[in-house]
UniProtKB/TrEMBL annotation:
Annotated organism of origin: Daejeonella lutea
Name of protein: DUF4153 domain-containing protein
Tree of life domain: Bacteria
Annotated keywords: Membrane, Transmembrane, Transmembrane helix
Taxonomic classification: Bacteria, Pseudomonadati, Bacteroidota, Sphingobacteriia, Sphingobacteriales
Residues of the signal peptide: none
Transmembrane annotation, as ranges: 65-87, 93-111, 120-138, 144-165, 185-212, 218-239, 251-273, 285-304, 316-341, 353-375, 387-410
């Protein structure tokens, strides 16, 4: 890209096309080149454009605000279905919790990215297939039902990713941008959630002082709509005001990566001395796998931030070491699962966890190889992001298999 920018430094049309295809990459390369191009009127313009930050909060267009309000109300209404239509909560929420928010978010990005009618129809069709399928499964709570509910949420998340990527030829950059969006969304949703919790406590407390006990009514009605609206409002804010968490997310990634690395090393040593092991303790194995997924998310989030701002050699070393330690954790978990299968045979849960751990192990090995190449100065850091982005569809395929095929293979047990 560096050579293309130099070659087309006086062609505004080509520069605009390059920027729209890969905004993060373009900004990084242009910023490093700008000292050489300074004085060129077009280059000066692009420097101002790329480094301009709004001080005020943007509330988008009236159409966007209307969409957010309507989507939030619909999401809250769906969340209230059990109370409104006398549906068993234990039946409704495990199956349909993903449909409270994901369809609204997917349609928001489909509208924002101006997707073709065919792609919008595909998004709606996939959502409807999942909705009909999961609610058609037998009502009895079984392992395959629980696995289908969990992995259907991952499928819906993938459909959201499809809407986010939009109409672009540079899918890898947009997929990595999708991971970054998820990290930013977690940060801003946490802030909105804390603020909402404080407001709720103050509201209920103030009314109790004047003799009105509104706690039950408030949390059963108003709070439900508020919780359903948080991801929608959070998405709207991150997309219209990227500067809100644009500087917070990299700081969080930078702080927690080394802390998690130290914690993992200490935890592995402590596990040896504690006498606990995942081979004979099922609950410990579940916690071990949850830890693995959490660390993977931190690695992915850190790499997503890397592609935007670049990283120092020390930060890349931390990510490499964290990946290696996570591979060790994954190896322990994987060997424990194989041991339990050899002793007690295949079950839906063991098979699902085995497949997920194998996929994660392969992904970690690919990421570690790329990080080592960056340390060796054989490849650019963006290659790590490309590996992660290109591997995401593999997780989607596995989620589809667990959601739709496992119940048939294991007889809905």
């Amino acid at each position: 890209m560096r050579e293309e920018i130099i070659a087309n430094q006086n062609d505004p049309r080509v520069l605009e096309q390059m920027y729209r295809i890969n905004k993060a990459g373009f900004k990084k390369e242009f910023t490093s080149l700008y000292p050489e191009l300074k004085g060129n009127s077009l280059a000066d313009f692009w420097n101002e454009r790329l480094n301009y930050e709004k001080e005020e909060i943007s509330w988008g267009t009236s159409k966007e605000l209307l969409f957010v309000v309507i989507a939030s109300l619909i999401a809250g209404f769906i969340a209230k279905f059990p109370a409104i239509f006398a549906i068993d909560e234990e039946f409704f929420y495990p199956r349909n919790i993903g449909f409270i928010v994901f369809p609204a978010l997917a349609l928001y990005f489909a509208w924002r990215n101006k997707l073709s009618t065919g792609k919008v129809a595909a998004i709606i069709g996939l959502m409807l297939i999942g909705l009909i399928y999961i609610n058609s499964l037998p009502g009895k709570e079984t392992d395959t039902l629980i696995l289908s509910c969990i992995h259907l949420a991952l499928c819906l998340w993938s459909v959201l990713g499809f809407a986010y990527v939009g109409e672009t030829s540079n899918n890898e950059a947009r997929r990595l941008g999708f991971l970054k969006y998820n990290g930013d969304l977690v940060v801003i949703c946490a802030l909105i959630g804390i603020s909402g919790l404080l407001m709720s406590g103050i509201t209920v407390g103030l009314f109790s002082l004047i003799g009105f006990n509104i706690e039950k009514f408030y949390f059963q009605n108003i709070a439900v709509f508020g919780l359903a609206a948080i991801p929608i409002v959070g998405t709207f804010l991150t997309q219209t005001n990227p500067q809100l968490v644009g500087k917070v997310s990299p700081v969080i990634a930078k702080i927690f990566s080394p802390l998690v690395l130290v914690m993992l090393v200490i935890y592995l040593v402590a596990m040896i001395y504690s006498g606990k092991d995942p081979y004979n303790d099922r609950e410990f194995l579940m916690i071990f796998n949850a830890l693995l997924i959490g660390v993977m998310a931190i690695i992915f989030f850190s790499v997503a931030e890397t592609s935007k701002s670049g990283k120092s050699q020390a930060e890349v070393w931390i990510l490499l070491l964290l990946s290696i330690v996570t591979i060790i954790v994954n190896g322990v978990a994987l060997s424990a699962i194989v041991f339990r299968i050899s002793e007690m045979g295949f079950t839906p849960n063991r098979t699902a966890v085995l497949g997920a751990n194998v996929l994660i192990l392969i992904n970690l090995l690919l990421v570690s190889t790329q990080l080592f190449a960056v340390i060796s100065k054989k490849k650019d850091i963006n290659g790590v992001g490309k590996v992660i982005a290109s591997y995401l569809p593999v997780y989607l395929v596995w989620s589809v298999i667990v959601t739709f095929v496992f119940p048939l293979i294991f007889g809905f047990r």
